[in-house]
Amino acid sequence: MTQSALPDKLQNIVKMFRSAPKPLRLQVLLEYSKKLPGLPERYQNHPELLESVPECTSPFFLVTEVEGGQVDLFFDVPPEAPTVRGYAGILTEGLAGASPEDVLSIPDDFYNEMGLNELITPMRLRGMGAILHRLKNQVREKAQA
């Protein structure tokens, strides 16, 4: 994977994780889970507008918006799922203000560069890959509309 394929904010997060000692990486991931914002009111009472990610072992829902050449991401992940919630927090922060092209160019396994594969089970990593895949599909469809 080339780092240049990542938007700057996400690239900085990847570098920070990669340079951190293994025990600190897990702690930082958990901090990102606490930073994940709640769903906007327009989605809170409309679960039908959210896409489920059944490949995740935890309940995970997402929706994207593409407007004015910018992607906005929204996730609904319970606090009892801190690792995937942390991944959602990383995506939210790392892709804030990104263009559809930026999002679509992200390598599907960029989280391996962060060293998450040393912390998280393969099943959870597959879920993370599925999250990014579904997110990209939504961005692609909405950007073409």
Automatic annotation (TrEMBL):
Residues in Fe-S metabolism associated domain copies: 20-138
Q: Report the family membership.
A: Belongs to the SufE family.
> Which species does this protein come from?
Deinococcus peraridilitoris (strain DSM 19664 / LMG 22246 / CIP 109416 / KR-200)
Signal peptide feature range: none
What name does this protein carry?
Answer: SufE protein probably involved in Fe-S center assembly
Top-level taxon of origin: Bacteria
List the InterPro entries: Fe-S_metab-assoc_dom
